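During the reporting period the student researcher (J.K.) took over the structure-prediction task from the postdoctoral fellow and processed the backlog of single-chain submissions. One of the processed entries is reproduced below for the supervisory committee.
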Amino acid sequence: MDKPYSQFTAMLSIARAGLISIFRSPSAVAFSFAFPLVFILVFGFFSGNGNVSVRAAFAPDTDTSSYLYKVLHGIGGIRIVNKPALELQEDLEKGRLTAIISLQKSNSESPAYIIHLKSSEAVNPQNIQILRSIIESVIKTLDHQKFPDIPTVATINNDIEKIPGRTYRTIDFILPGQLGFSLLSAGVFGVAFLFFSLRQTLVLKRFFATPVSRTFIVLGEGLSRVTFQLITAVVILAIGYYFFHFTLIHGWITFLELLVLSFAGLVVFMSFGFVVSGIAKNESTIPPLANMVTLPQFLLAGTFFPIDNFPEWLQPFCRILPLTHLNDAMRNVSFEGAHLTDCGKQLAILAVWAVIGYALAVKTFKWE
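J.K. obtained the following C-alpha cells:
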C-alpha cells in the first residue's frame, strides 16, 4: 500500500534545495555575511574605547539663574543632554555621558559658585579631563571679561564623584545595527529576487504539477531563507563576542533571545520582499524598488548613529521604521539586560508592520 504524500517532507526538500542555492549565490553571501562583517571589523578595530565624546548634563539642583550656567549651556565644546534624572543616571553608568554637572552657589563672594562633577567608571578619563579643561577655560574667560574685581567666579571641586558602571563599547552599538542591516537586506533583496526568478523561469508553475500545495511551496522557500539568515546571525554574533568583546550580558540566554529577535525581524522584512517581487515588472526594476524600502531604514534607523543625532523634525519618521525597533530591542537585550518580555513595545510595532507587509504581499503576490 502506497504511503500518503507528505506535504511537510516536500516542504523540507524545497527548503534544503533553496538553502543550497542560497549558499551558491555570491550576492546572497556578500549581502548577508561580507558587508556586515566588513563594517564590524572596521568599527571593531578602529573605534575602541578611546573616542573623545564630551556629553554632559546639568543636575536638577543646578542654579540655572546664574550667568555661568547660561554660558556653559551654550558652549560649543560640550553637548548638553536634557533627559529625566533616571535616564541620565543610566547613561552615566554606561559611559554614554561624560559627567553630570552640579553648579551650586557658594557662601562666599569668591568663588561665587562651586562646580561638582559626577561621573562613572565606564567613562574614559580623557573625556573627563577634556570636560574639566573646557569648564576651566570658560571660568578664566569670565574672570577676565566679566568679573575682574574678584579672584574667580567659580571653582571645580577636585573630588569627582564616580559611580560604578559598565563600559559601553562602540561594537555594542554597531553590531546589532549591522545584524539588522543583514536581515533587512536578505529579507527584501533575497526574497524579491528569489521569487521573481522562480516565477520568471516557470519553476513555480511547474510546482503546480506536483502534489505540493501552494502554502508549503512558500513555506519551504521561506524556511531556507530563514535558516540561512539565522546561520548568518550566529556567525556575526560569535565574531563580535569572541574577537571584539561584544556584550552578551546574560550569556547564552541573551544569545538565544537575539536569535529570536533576528527571526522576528526577518519574518517582517520578508513580507517587504514578497511585495517587491509581486509589483516588479522585470528583474531590473527590483533593485530600485528594494532600495526604496531598505535605504531609508539603513540610513535613518540608528544603524550607525543614535537617532537622537538627527534633526528633531526627522526623528518621528525614524521612530516608525521597523528596523529602528528591531535595533532598539537587540541593543536592550544584549547590553541593557532586558529580556524579550521587556521588549513588548518593539515587538508590537514589528507585529503591526508584519500585518501591513503580508496584507500587501497577499494582494501583490503572483505565481506566474
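The committee noted the following: The CA atoms of residues 271 and 359 lie 9 Å apart.
J.K. will present the remaining backlog at the next meeting.
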